[in-house]
Amino acid sequence: MTEPGAELVVxxxxxxxxxxxxxxxxxxxLRIVGTLAGxxxxxxxxxxxxxxxxxxxxxWGRVLMAAxxxxxxxxxxxxxxxxxxxxxxxxxxxxxxxxxxxxxxFVLYLRPFADDPVRARMPSPDPNSSIGSVFxxxxxxxxxxxxxxxxxxxxxVAIGRPGERLPLPGALRAYLPLxxxxxxxxxxxAQARLVVLGAGPGPGTIWELVEAVRAIPPARLxxxxxxxxxxxxxxxxAAAAEFAARLPRLRQEKGPGWKPPVFPAxxxxxxxxxxxxxxxxxxxxxxxxxxxxxxxRFDPTAPRRRSRAALAKEVNRxxxxxLRYLKEPGTAPVPGSPxxxx
Length: 342
Fold this sequence. Notes:
This protein has helices at about 15-45, 60-90, 115-120, 140-150, 180-190, 205-215, 230-255, 310-325; strands at about 105-110, 155-160, 170-175, 195-200, 220-225, 285, 295. By secondary structure, the protein is of the alpha/beta class. The chain has a domain at about 95-325. The chain has a seven-stranded mixed sheet with strand order 3-2-1-4-5-6-7, covered by helices on one side.
């Protein structure tokens, strides 16, 4: 086990903070210039057939110019997002010792490392939105958005993926040796104000799930579901097998009548025929006082849940009971019940 004051592993690459700040500034500049160029292009395209041109440019020339401004503006905007995100990797704080983590309440973010490249992506244009919506796209990655959602619970901390050269934007990274991580992660699980676990079928993720169920109260564990039904079913089967294998030991600690959580089936969409694009975050699983899981599905086909803003509001509403419970466990209702039927 890594001792609290011991120096942790650092990524293979080298951070350059001045270069990172420069990339952030250049990125934001490109986003602003790209937005202005793109919006001017859209406006000129709308008025190409009616506006008077003092230079006598033919209609097709005005349309071509408007399209060029829009395309160039879009490319500048998207390039600016990429450069700013790259800059944030260079200025991100890396946790050097475990002593840094326990100084303030923190959220421990655990997930399959294979998900990291996907969580590092930024939002893509919504096909159902207007042509100018590209310039309203957030520059935050999926993990940075997740960090903002759970910010009321504390600073988000994650174990860095072995071998990555720079930390990804989002949670603060701590890097552990490949052959000495379970004891340290178990200690962090016990210390965290909240554990956020990305559901996945990998053995490391399943071990972390069982360890969290063993070590902390149900209200301090939230599972987030990013994958489709097929991967979630693999997760359900792997979790059930691991709980069955460790059930005798768990009952020694929790009592002979203790029952492990039985995860519900993947909830269907309300109107699957209306689905054009799904949310990145498919849902969350919270737990009742007896480890009864409740799957909260974020359904893009349900009424008034079409936009990303609607999803953010739905997630915040789902987290409000949990936040109240963690602040006032004796007076607030326990989140996670009643459970959905399997």
